[in-house]
Amino acid sequence: MHELTDSDYDILHAMENIVDGIAAMWGEHTEVLLHCLDSRNPSIMKIANGHITGREVGAPITNIALVKLNEGQDVSKAYITKSPEGKTLRSLTTVIRNKKQQAIGLLCVNFNLDAPFQSMIHSLMPAIGAYCDHGVTAETFARNNDEMMHSSIENVRKQVTSDSSIPPSKKSREIVTRLHDLGVFDLKDSAQIAAKGLDISIHTIYRYLREIRAHDVQ
After folding, report:
1. What pLDDT digit, counting tens, does each position of 1-39 carry?
2. In angstroms, rounded to a whole number, what is the distance separating the alpha carbons of residues 112 and 52?
3. What backbone torsions phi and psi does residue 30 show, to the nearest 5 degrees?
4. 88-146 residue pLDDT tens
5. What's the pTM value of the predicted model, to 2 decimals?
6. Closest of 96, 78, 34 to residue 59, by C-alpha
7. What angle do CA 98, 101, 102 make, to 5 degrees?
8. Max CA pair span of the chain
């Protein structure tokens, strides 16, 4: 370990949202924490679901974390540990490095294997009833930008076409507006692809975009 610089801390602070994101994804039985490896005070600088091990920001680095740091693997294999209260945890440690490849932090994940099964499932599938009642929005896992654009255009076209509240004369413009809001037109050749997919001229696409963007700046 060494004394961290301001730029090192900038990297670590940028990781804080990742801690919250992983915890939100995996629920209350997954503890996620960010260890700072500043030699002056190696400690936790961000933690989510700290109730699993009873720790808070400022708690010292553990002996196991130091072992993982010295094993030479930036992403450890999953390993089993015990919390102070005896909970069995499935853990994983990832080393965070600066541009000089110096270790400046650790991102650690501890999953409580002793949590009740029903509670575990509930934390992984929150508000499942709401999704069943209202349907789940399909996400496009495209392999390239062209595929993503074609899929986005088709999804929006179907939504607008089936919406009887939108007059037929307004549907093309509404499709372009929704695609614009999705950021599709920030991608290369998107206007040409949209024009072909919607069977309208590219000049019409550009006209709609000018009108939309002019309205946005007002």
Report:
1. 789 999 999 999 999 999 999 999 898 999 999 999 998
2. 7
3. -120, 115
4. 999 999 999 999 999 999 999 999 999 887 777 777 776 544 444 444 445 555 566 66
5. 0.62
6. 34
7. 75
8. 68
Decide if 110 contacts 68 (C-beta within 8 A): no
Q: How far apart are CA 67 and CA 64, in angstroms?
A: 5
**Residue 196 — φ and ψ, nearest 5°?**
-65, -45
Distance CA 155, CA 162 (A): 11
φ, ψ (nearest 5 deg) of residue 188: -60, 140
How big is the CA angle at 10 (ends 27 and 66), to the nearest 5 degrees?
65
Distance CA(30)–CA(24), nearest Å, equals 9
Could you give the count of Cα atoms lying within 13 Å of 59 in the half-sphere of its Cβ? 14
Give the three-state DSSP class for 93: strand
Length of the chain: 218
Please tell me what DSSP assigns to residue 74: S
**Residues 76 and 69 sit within 8 Å (Cβ to Cβ):** no
Beta-strand ranges (E) seen in the chain are: 30-36, 43-48, 79-82, 88-97, 103-112
Phi, psi for 79 (deg, rounded to 5):
-140, 160
45 by DSSP, 3-state: which?
A: strand
